[in-house]
Amino acid sequence: MTSAAYRTTAEKNPHGATPPQPPTPEGPLDLVGIGIGPFNLSLAALAQPLGRLRTAFYDQRPAFHWHPGLLLEGTTLQVPFLADLVTLADPTSRWTFLNYLRARDRLFPFYFAENFHIERAEYDDYCRWVSESLPGLHFRHQVDAVRWNPERELFAVDFTQLDEAGEAEALGRSYARNLVLGVGTAPYLPESLKPLADSAAVPVIHSADYLDHRERLLKAEHITVIGSGQSGAEIFLDLLRARPAGRERLHWLARTPAFAPMEYSKLGLEQFTPDYTRYFHALPESVRNALVPQQWQLYKGIDRATIGAIHDELYRRTLSGGWPDAVLTPGVTVRTAGRIGATRIELHLEHVQQTVRSRLTTDAVILATGYRERNLTTLLAALDPYMRRDNAERPRIDARHRLILDPCVTGSVYVQNAERHTHGVGTPDLGLAAWRSAIILNSLTGGPAYPLPPRTAFTTFGLRPAPIGDVDGVPQPPATPLTRHL
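Below the sequence we write its predicted structure tokens.
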């Protein structure tokens, strides 16, 4: 193992203390994490106090940032502040959001603000505070490949260390008994709009990059937002507020049958509990496949405050007579798109319920079309012969969030936010981050490193309990035991 594998960022934490140094590279690591988003950051934070558990987490970015293009002023998380990196598994952890406030001398202002849902920018700063204080996090480390070494019974992780310009500086390799993949999701661009998005002549951008292009977009004569989720709603509202009354020149299109509120009733939210996750995982594959699209309002809806703010802003613009020049149309798909002249875009639309087709000419398009799981084919190419797949060729994942591999692989590969097809709509939800991290660490250590409640919902899902042992008839082998190290 090269020394580069353990080189950390040089930044100090906000209080001037140098972050603790990682362990010296003697022998294999117990766990290597690939990607440092909120989910692997949660895992790293909860793993840190577990005695001699040796971990390293790699990310090619220079530092932690969470959706920087969507940190609009005043936008909040859609989960309470208790859904931080650690609290729902260990409220006594030093990495809680409340301890972050204490370290920033902001506990009393937060107390009097009475905000259950914090601003996204604050959550981003909280995560960065954790990332700058934890040992074993290696930014500017691009993981190139992983493979199983049967002679050593270890995973080999090859990476490239990057310099400040993002260029290759050194090559390295780590060996680990177990892996966890937390590479996150990537912005999704519809096939019909990909060619335009790749062109610099016309502004067709994904919502993930909105703030980087906001000034340019506001100069466009006519703007179209595509997508009815929370991001699309927030961007439409931001554009609406920035345009003069009567000359808004905005279109908001969506495939969903309505601009609908997110399911936020208290019993409805129990579909984001561990109880529901276990229930969903135990369902037949065909049932799971049919169920996820039906639950779109659980994760594609808009919070009621944003819907209300949009209606209030539109209504305010009618006070002097007339209607705002803004068109909001759900139930519409974009069939194809092309460029007119040098700078204009033509969208070919179809209304599904009316079976009517039309065309829309616009000067800028913002794609609030969501995210998809990153393609891991290249990264995991060497592990592909060992992986078990379902009928749709997706990786099979057990109840402990592990890839189901050939029994000859004695190590475990855990996944974070890549298992919606097996664990349901709660997979990307921040509220389940700490719980999933605890499941992974309990599996790794072979014991209750973090005791978890046997029940988390008032709702009883199904008529028989979801099995916690076997998954789809495949026995659950223990993770590579670490008890000899703890």
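The longest strand covers residues 141-149.
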